[in-house]
Every structure is written in structure tokens, then in C-alpha cells.
Amino acid sequence: MAVRRWASSIPNLILTVGLGYFVVWPLVAIIGRGLLPHSHLRLAAVTDVFTDARVRSVFGFTLWQSLLSTVVAVALGLPIAYGLERVRPRGAGVVRVLLTIPFALPTVVVGAAFIAEFGAGGPLRSWQWLHTTTIIVVAHVYFNLGVVVRVVGTRWREFDEQLIDAARMLGANRVRTFASVTWPAIAGSVVNAAAIVWLFCLTSFGVITTLGGLTKTTIETEIFRLTTQELALDRAAALVVVQLLTVGIVAVVCARFVGSRAVAGEHAARSLVASRRSRRAWSVSLWSLAAVMVLPMLIVVQRAFETGGGGFAALRDSSRFGWRPIDSVATSLQSAAWATLFSLAMGTMAAFIVGRRAPGWRALNALTTLPIAVSAVTLGFGFLIALDRPFDLRDRWFLVPLAQAFVAAPIVLRLLVPTMQSIAPQLREVAALLGASPVRVTTSIDIAILLPALATAAAFAMAISLGEFGATSFIARQNQPTMPLAIARLLGRPGIGSQHAAFALSFVMIAIIGALAIFAGTVQSAASRRRGMFR
Amino acid sequence: MNRVGVSRARQLRAAAVVLTASAIAASCGSSSGAKLHPLGPTVKPKPETSVTLLTYSAFTPPKGVFALFTRDTGIRVDVLQQGDGGSLINQAVLTRDHPQGDVLYGVDNTFLSVGLDSNVFAPTAFRSIDALAPAHRDLFAEVLKSVMPIDYGDVCLNYDIAWFSKHKLAPPASRQDLLLPKYKGLTVVENPATSSTGLAFLIATIGTQQDQGWKDYWRSLKANGVQVVDDWTTAYETEFTGGGGKGTRPIVVSYASSPPADVVFSEGKKTKPSIAAVTNDCFRQYEFAGVLKGAKHPTAAARLVEFMMSAPFQAALPLSNYVFPTRARTALPLIFRQFAAVPEHPLTIDYVVLGRHRSNWIRDWTSLMGG
Asked: What is the ipTM of this complex?
């Protein structure tokens, strides 16, 4: 017992110190600069914020668009996850990959593609979606559908179909079976997925500014404006506090829910025996969904090749922009590789604590989630004013991958925890009884069962770090921008030539992320297929 | 039992593949990339052999020009580009105790007062004050002890010549014309809260009087179907008919230098511009450079600012960033002499006034147009 406590408190300490210095301290520093200028508290800013009618409407819109986006994403994602993981029609793997790619694309790319689709001269201009809540929700769902499908799907795939057969045999109808067998098994992952999606939508920035237009302002865009344009740190800090409180309340509710719903189940993977007709119906609907998902990417491809590859030539031409856009690919890959290692390490350590509900798991869960729960601009400005003491870390090479890892770690954690919780504790007890050391128990039971989820997590982490924009834009050495920064810079430059180069680079990025998603999908399905075979 | 063991071993192998792949990618990157990409270990620079220039992300360093500086002085220039002019100066204020670089370049006259009020610039005796064209020197006489105006651009209305001739309509001659029914739904402007171009146009509509007349102007403009977008690129490249995209609006807020830029962007397809600038009601936007207080390399920083005022750098500005040099008697490229619009009376407003009112104007404008 003493050993186990010790074993979980070391990673807990590492994570707490790391997150404390790199996330909490910058956050405290920037909020402190706003609310405690010259060391005396200015609460007026906070009370002003709560009484300001504009802020109230901004807050209301933020909640509304984020909840709506989450509900739609989950409602669409659940049947898709079911279809992909239980029915598994032909081409399910391809559809899964297509659904995952958008999540990793930087909002600048998707924003540009959406504008090309719905904006001036676009094929869907007549729908008049630009600058409406609709397009914001559609874009959020577009980005996050993959999260729901992956997070829930990973859990659903491991769900034992025999339980359903048993329930049906005992006379339960479909609804009853779902409510009392399927739902308890997947509920944890659904809540997890919803929580991630909701956090992303709540703090989403690029989608709101590029597609929302003038009237659509969220807490996040307001914090950005107040910080970068008006240097009104007091009001910005007050909004950060509001944002944190909102997130905190939901996090507590979710943690409770997830904690109470852990279900131990046997690991089985068997595809549903569906009738040929219903398989075909599933196949058709999943493929049409894939077609919709691929449309914005096609626009990117079309724009990239519009000039017969002129955009690609410009990527290698250093004389044109003063820097070679193609170099950003190497910068990004290198940074993302480090970020993947960092976030897998962090996420796995955290998953062991959160998944086993070791002492302090709630606090750690909240702490790990903090980087995606706070606005990137707050964190970015926080880095600038906090990480110069005791050493000036602001231009160290590891800061970019580390920041990206912090953004990816919560997803890694959430992908691992449901699987982790499904490991029957008896397995570990039996192993221990048979004389396995705690390390041996961890490697041959926990890690082994976690592997497919780890593969998914690695791919997600890599994809998130490749696409990360907000925090990176504050700390990246900008003469060596990452791909999203390079794309944003090219898009922001005058001249149709640089627009084409931007789309060409976006195409390269889509290709890389697609390759990653295919790789993860192959590893994952290979792993679960083998497991099914040897059952 | 044995079979389970086998399958587990395979899973372990599968995950090992993932982990090794990313480990390899990481290590490859760090070994080969150390020289090319500063994501590898950073080398501490020796004193005064390098200087870091902080600027906004849209700035394009003129080709090969910093190399001239390095050749003459032995000082390497690292360019650190972040955000726009507004966030650039605000970051400098926030990091006042430990600035991220030595020279800040790109803060404009609408944001200059933020930097000056917070004392982010170190007082410097610039020799190149004498090289400034007198008109610019007189305008900023009292700030020249800490910053230098490096370049300027005139924000003016632009229109698509072909569109207006095709529709047999006379192009607008002033911003007042935009309120006419015949120009309904033809104009796209940038949001002053997010775009410095948009802010410049807002200031142009406020003018020197600073009375409340500008609000009526914008109410009418809104009623006449003006479109507001977030940034210059969206306005010009996407919504404007004369830009790169398939826009639908033939009038846009852009620059006096947009006509020559139009020819350059066409990459040889155009010999003369297909867009023109309205020379009335233009606002002149200046961009400043200064040495940051607390800079690690103050001597090199001062030399860099002087270099930015030198003839080679100034002459390279028009074709790299489509702005005009402030140095007296700097020859403009032919294409600028041929096609750049020359505003008759560009509006210049005291930077102190701009600093005092900027936030309020933006706030009023936002509630006027957003609500």
C-alpha cells in the first residue's frame, strides 16, 4: 500500500510542479498584473465586468454558441461512432481518417476554406451563412466531430457485444438495452468528449474572428481585443476569471460524473452482425458525411493547384517572402515530435493517477485541463511576463513543443482514462497475487491494454501540436514559423501569389495530417483485430 | 494463455512503432536542425554581435538588405515577428522589465503614444534625424529623441477601374460619395478594432474636427450597405472585385500604393494597374522604430535604427512593403513614380490626440456598427 501511494505521488509531483510553473504561474502573473497593479487590489474591474451590459451579452453568446456546438457535435458524433466501430461498413477506416483531419487543421486554413465556400464568389454564398451563428456552429462541429468519434469510438469498440445479446435474450427492448447496458459503458467517454468539445468551442478564437464577423464576440475574442489592442489588463483579467469560473463549474460536474460511471468490462471486439441492408444504409450515410467533410479540403486543394503548382514553387523560393515557407514543415514536424513525446509522458502519468483515482486525482485532472480551458492569448501573454524568471526561458527551443504538449495532454488524458477505468481491478490483484511487482503489473496489464488508445493518443497529440496556433504564436521564434503560423502570415500578405502559397502549404499540411491519421488508424485497427482474433 | 501473451507482445510492438517513430522524428530534427532551426539548442550570442528586431508579422524584410548591415558592422540581425502593430507595442509595454528584443519597429502613429507614455523606448541621439524629409521631421519633432519615423503609407479608398467602366458608372471621388444611392452595396471596409487600415479610415472619417458628425456618416454608410470585414487581406483579396479572389465589391479601403502593388502582384500579367486610389480623404499612417529600454544590445540597436534610415534600406521599402520612405530625396522605384497615387492633403493628426481617443472611437464605432 505504501509502495502504491509512493508510486502515484512521484508522477503527481512532477506534473504538479511542471504545470504549476508553466501554466499556473503565467496565468497568475497576467491576472495579477491586471487586478493587482502596484500591489493593491482593483476589484472595480471585476464588478464593472459583471454589471456591463455588453459583457453580459458577450458572455451569453459565448455560452450559447459553445453549448449548441457541443450538443450538435455529440448528437452527430454518437451515431457516427456507432456506425464506425460497431457496424464497421466497408471503408470505415477512411471515413474515420477524414473525420479526424479537420481537428488538426489550423483555423486559419479552415477559415479560409469556409470563406471560399460561403463568402464572396463562393459556391454557397446564397446561403448567407457568413457572419451568422450557424456558420460558427457548423465550423465548430466540423473541427470537433473527430474528437467525439474518436473518444467515444475507442471506448465503444472495446464494449462487449455479448452483454447486449444477453440483455436482449432476457427480454429487454432496444431502448432498455441501450439505457441499461450500452449507455453506462460509454457514458464516461461521451461526457469526456463533450467536455473537450465544449472547452474548445468556449475558448475558440480563429473560427469566431474569421467567420463570425463584427457582431459575434465571445469572451475569448474580447480578452484578445482588450489585451492586445487596448492593453486593458484589468478588464481582460476580470474576463479571464469569469472564463475560468465557468470552466471550473463544468469541470467539477464532469469529474463527478466520470468518476461515478467507471464500468469494468471485459475487453472484446466483435463487429455487430448487421443485416446487409442496414450495413449498406450505414455505408451510404457515412460516405456522404465523408463527402461533406472533405469539401473544405477540396477547396484548399483547388486553390493550391489553381496556378498549375505556382504556389508550390513559391514555397521553396526564399527571395519572395524573405523566408522559405517550406522550411516551416521541418520546424513543425520537429516541434510536434517533441510535443508528442512530452504530452504522451504527461498524459500517461496523469491517466494513471486520474484513471485509478489515486489521491489528488481531481486536482490533477483540473490542472491538466487548464491549458485548454484558458484562453491562448492569456497564456501567451502570461508566458511573456512570467517565464523570464529565474531564467529567461522565453526563447528556448523547448518552450514551443512544451506549450503544444500542454494543449495536447488533456486530450491524451481523456483518450486513456475511459480505457484505463475499464480495466478490471481484479486483473491487477490476480497479477499481484501471482507475484508480479507493481512495475510488472503496470507494464503487462495497464500499458498492454492501453496500447490501442495510446496509439490514438499519439496521433492526436501530434496532430494537435502540428495545428496549434494560439500559444505558439506568442512564443515561436518567428523567423522559423511553424506551418500554421507560416500559413497565417502568407494569408495576411498582399498579393494573390502569397494566397496561393498559403493554400499550397495548407495542402502539404493536410497531407501530413492525413498520413498521420491513416498511420494511427492502421496501428489501432491492427491492434484490436489481433485482440479479437486471440480471444 | 500463451496466445494472449503473443497478442500482447504484438500490441507492445505496435505501440513501440508509434513511440519510436516520434522519437526518431524528434531526434532527427534536433541533430540536423540545430543549425537550420533554432528549435535546437540556442547559442548564447556574444555581446553586441547580434541584434534582435521586434516587428509585426506582416513585415517583409527587404531582400538581402539586412545582410548589408551585417557585412558592414559584423552584427547579425534576428527578426522576431509577432502580431500586428498594436499587439506589438502592447507586448513591449508588458515585457518592459525584460524586453524580448533590442529594436521595436512597426508601431504606428495611432499606437505610438502607448509606447511613449509607458517609456518603453530608450532615449537615443539619432544622427539620421538630419536625413529625414523636413515635412516628416517637423511633424514629429518632439518624439525624435526616442523614435524615428521610418516609413509612411496613405490609407485611401480604392476602386476597380474595369468594374466601373463596365457598369458605366463614374467612380467615387471622395468618401462622401459612398453615401450616394448609386454606390449602394459596393463598398467593403476593414474593422477598425482589428485592422490598422480600418482604423486609419475611421480616423479619416473623423477628421480634424473630431465632432460627432462622423457617427452620422457611418450610420448612413451602414444604411448604404457597407460591408465590414476583419482585415485588409479579406477586404482586398476576397471581397474586392479588383483583388485576387472573386469578390463582388468594387470599392475598398486600401492604400495609395495599391495601384503599383496591383501591377507587381500580377507577376507580369499587367503593365498598368486595373485599380485606382481616390486621392481625397486619405489618412497618413507612419511607422516608427526605436531602441527598447533594457535592450541587451543597445549600441547595436541604435546602429540598426540608423541603418533603417539609411539610403539602401529606405530605397528597398516601397517594393518590399509598399510603403514610402521618410528619408529625404530617396528615389522611388519607377513603378511607384508611374502609378502610386499622391494624395493632395493627406490627413495627419497629432499622435497624442490619436492616443487619447483611439479606444473611445473604436468603442463608439463598434456599438454603432455592431448593434
From this structure: 0.73
